Inverse folding.
C-alpha cells in the first residue's frame, strides 16, 4: 500500500468518524414497513372523469418518520418532462397493485417536482391516477373507472362529489372533494386531502385547463398561492396541511384570469370511523360549484 | 399464520436495519460528502428495501443489494445535488470574495496538509469517491465494486486511476495557499 492509499484510508476513516451519532438513531427510529391500504373514497382521485360520482380507489403507503414533515416542499414546484425512473417504477408497481389495474398501461401526463417529492398524474386512456412519491411518503390514487365519460364531459365532471373520511389502520384519509367543473378555462379540478401518521395532513389538487393556459396558480384560503405543474393542459399541485383552495389563477396570452373554486372543509375527525366507511357524503361538486371564468 | 410470518419478517428487517444501517450511512456519507444528505439517502434506500423485503430477505447478499440501491440513488441524484450546492455557494459567495476572508481561508488551509487532502477529496465527483471508498475503505475487489456500481471492471479501473491522479495533485492546494498568504505576511 502506498502513501496515497494510506492517506486516503485515513481521510475516509476520519470522515466516517465525524458522522453524527444521532443520525443512526434517527435512521433506526423510522418505521419503514409499508402499511398499504386500499381506501374507498368518493370523487376524490380521478382527474378527468372524476366525475363519475362513483368511488375512487386509493392506495396509500404513509410511513411514520422522525424527520420534519414534508421538509423540502416548495410552493413553487417545477414541471418535469417526466418522472425520474425510480419514481416511475415505484408508481407503476403501486398502480398495478390497485384492484382491477393489472395490465393497465399508465402514461405520465404531468410531473410536479417539489424538493424531494414528485407528484405525477397518469392516464391510462380511460381513467386517470395520481402518484405522490417522496421520503417516507408514497401515495397512489385513481378513479374507480366506471360510469364516467371518457375525457370527462362537462356534465360528467360536474357530478363529482365530496369524499368521505375513512380511517384505515394507522392511515387516515380525510376526504376528497371534486369541487369544480366549469366552463371557461378551468375544465375541472379535484382536491383531495390525506393525512399521514403523526398529524401530517396534506392536500393534492389536479385538473385540466384549456389549451392556451400557460400557468396555473392555486390561491388558498390564507391568501398564499401554490404554483401548479402544468403540461399540455393538465395540472397537479400539492401542499402540506389542509388549507383550502379558493381560486385558480390561469395565465394566458391575454393576461391572468382568476376563477373561483369552492372546496368543502375537511370532515371533522370525529366523523371518521374506524370501520373505514363513515364520513359525510359530499355536498359540493354539483354543477352549482362550477367556477365561472373571470372575477 | 400469515400474521406470524409478517411479524417475523418485520423483526428480520429491523435486525437488517441495525446491522446494515451504519454501513450504508458511512458509504452514503463518503460518496455524497454531506451528512444530512447521506442520512436522507439511507432512509430512502431502506424504504425501498422494505417495500421489497419479502424478496430481499431470501437473498444471501442483502447488504450488497441494499448498497447497490443506495449507490444508484446517490449517483442518479448527484448532478441535481451538485447543482443545488452550486446555487447555494453562488448565493453565499459575496463573503468569500472579501480579500481578508480569502486570505484567512487560505492561511487556515495551509495549517494542515491533511485538510487540503480532504478538501480535494471533497471536490471529486461522487462516482469517483464511490469507487475509492468501496476499494480503499470497504476493501471490495474491483469486481465487487463494478457489481455494486453496475458498471464494468474497466470503468472501475479507469475511474480509480483518474481519481487518484486528482488526489496526487492535491497537496498543491497547500502550496497555493502558502503562496497566496506569504505576500500578505511580508506586507505586514
Amino acid at each position: 500500500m502506498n502513501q496515497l492509499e494510506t492517506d486516503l484510508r485515513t481521510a475516509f476513516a476520519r470522515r466516517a468518524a465525524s458522522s453524527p451519532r444521532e443520525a443512526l438513531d434517527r435512521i433506526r427510529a423510522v418505521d419503514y414497513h409499508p402499511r398499504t391500504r386500499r381506501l374507498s373514497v368518493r370523487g376524490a382521485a380521478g382527474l378527468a372523469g372524476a366525475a363519475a360520482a362513483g368511488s375512487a380507489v386509493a392506495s396509500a403507503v404513509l410511513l411514520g418518520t422522525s424527520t420534519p414533515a414534508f421538509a423540502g416542499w416548495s410552493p413553487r414546484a417545477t414541471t418535469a418532462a417526466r418522472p425520474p425512473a425510480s419514481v416511475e417504477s415505484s408508481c407503476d408497481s403501486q398502480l398495478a397493485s390497485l384492484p382491477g389495474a393489472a395490465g393497465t398501461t399508465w402514461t405520465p401526463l404531468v410531473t410536479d417536482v417539489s424538493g424531494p417529492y414528485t407528484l405525477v398524474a397518469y392516464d391510462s386512456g380511460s381513467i386517470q391516477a395520481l402518484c405522490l412519491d417522496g421520503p417516507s411518503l408514497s401515495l397512489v390514487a385513481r378513479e374507480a373507472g366506471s360510469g364516467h365519460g371518457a375525457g370527462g364531459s362537462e356534465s360528467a365532471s360536474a357530478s363529482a362529489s365530496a369524499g368521505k373520511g375513512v380511517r384505515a389502520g394507522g392511515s387516515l384519509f380525510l376526504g376528497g372533494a371534486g369541487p369544480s367543473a366549469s366552463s371557461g378555462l378551468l375544465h375541472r379540478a379535484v382536491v383531495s386531502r390525506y393525512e399521514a401518521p403523526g398529524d401530517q395532513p396534506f392536500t393534492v389538487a389536479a385538473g385540466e385547463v384549456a389549451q392556451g393556459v400557460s400557468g396555473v396558480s392555486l390561491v388558498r384560503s390564507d391568501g398564499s398561492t401554490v404554483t401548479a405543474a402544468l403540461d399540455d393542459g393538465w395540472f397537479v399541485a400539492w401542499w402540506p396541511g389542509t388549507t383550502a383552495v379558493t381560486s385558480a389563477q390561469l395565465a394566458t396570452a391575454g393576461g391572468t384570469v382568476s376563477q373561483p373554486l369552492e372546496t368543502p372543509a375537511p370532515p371533522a375527525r370525529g366523523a371518521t370511523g374506524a370501520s373505514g366507511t363513515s364520513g359525510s357524503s359530499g355536498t359540493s361538486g354539483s354543477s352549482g360549484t362550477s367556477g365561472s371564468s373571470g372575477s | 399464520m400469515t400474521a406470524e410470518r409478517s411479524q417475523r419478517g418485520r423483526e428480520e428487517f429491523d435486525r437488517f436495519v441495525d446491522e446494515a444501517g451504519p454501513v450504508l450511512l458511512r458509504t452514503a456519507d463518503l460518496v455524497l460528502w454531506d451528512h444530512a444528505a447521506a442520512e436522507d439517502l439511507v432512509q430512502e434506500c431502506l424504504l425501498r428495501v422494505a417495500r421489497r423485503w419479502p424478496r430481499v430477505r431470501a437473498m444471501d447478499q442483502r447488504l450488497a443489494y441494499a448498497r447497490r440501491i443506495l449507490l444508484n440513488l446517490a449517483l442518479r441524484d448527484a448532478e441535481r445535488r451538485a447543482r443545488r450546492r452550486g446555487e447555494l455557494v453562488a448565493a453565499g459567495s459575496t463573503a468569500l470574495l472579501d480579500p481578508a476572508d480569502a486570505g484567512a481561508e487560505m492561511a487556515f488551509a495551509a495549517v494542515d496538509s491533511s485538510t487540503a487532502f480532504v478538501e480535494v477529496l471533497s471536490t471529486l465527483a461522487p462516482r469517483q469517491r464511490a469507487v475509492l471508498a468501496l476499494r480503499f475503505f470497504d476493501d471490495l475487489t474491483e469486481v465487487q465494486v463494478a457489481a455494486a456500481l453496475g458498471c464494468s471492471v474497466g470503468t472501475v479501473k479507469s475511474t480509480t486511476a483518474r481519481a487518484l491522479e486528482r488526489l496526487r495533485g492535491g497537496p498543491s492546494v497547500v502550496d497555493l495557499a502558502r503562496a497566496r498568504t506569504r505576500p500578505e505576511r511580508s506586507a505586514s
